[in-house]
Amino acid sequence: MIGSNKLFTVALHIFLIMLTVFCVLPFVILAASSFTEETALIRNGYSLFPSAWSLESYRYLFRDSSMIFRANGITVLVTAIGTTAGLLMTNPDGLCAIHSQFAWTEIFLLFYLFHNAV
Fold it and tell me: How confident is the model over 37-43, as a mean pLDDT?
């Protein structure tokens, strides 16, 4: 019985290590490709080790930094609007679930059903 427990633990560790590698590997390839020349990237494709090193992508980003601020601003705006809309749509549902004597329970429940059906 002890041997099967140890075998399971080893198999689980191998599985988790492989899962971790598969999750981290795309980020490593992305970082490596950011240091690769664009022509080498087009010619050779993505790889873990750049064939031709270049910092041109970072020069481009720092040369026109307004693009980064605009993109981050849009991200913050979409997150704020999405979070607010989600809260405004789910809070009445919770209110109806808690207080069955609430005056507009039927209306909110119908809205909830139609909202989740779409």
Answer: 89
Of 100, 84, 86, 118, nearest to 109 (Cα)?
A: 100
Taking residue 45's Cβ as centre, other Cβ atoms within 10 Å add up to 10
| Residues of the chain above pLDDT 70, percent | 88
What residues form DSSP beta bridges with 53? 36
CA 100 to CA 105: how far, in whole Å?
A: 7
pLDDT of residue 3: 62
Tokens encoding 3: 């041997």
**Cα 44 from Cα 50, distance rounded (Å):** 9
Residue type, 59: R
Evaluate if pTM is beyond 0.70: no
User: Read out DSSP for 38-94?
Assistant: HHHHHHH---SS-SSB--HHHHHHHHTTHHHHHHHHHHHHHHHHHHHHHHHHHHHHH
Span of 55-69, 77-91, 102-116 with lowest mean pLDDT: 102-116
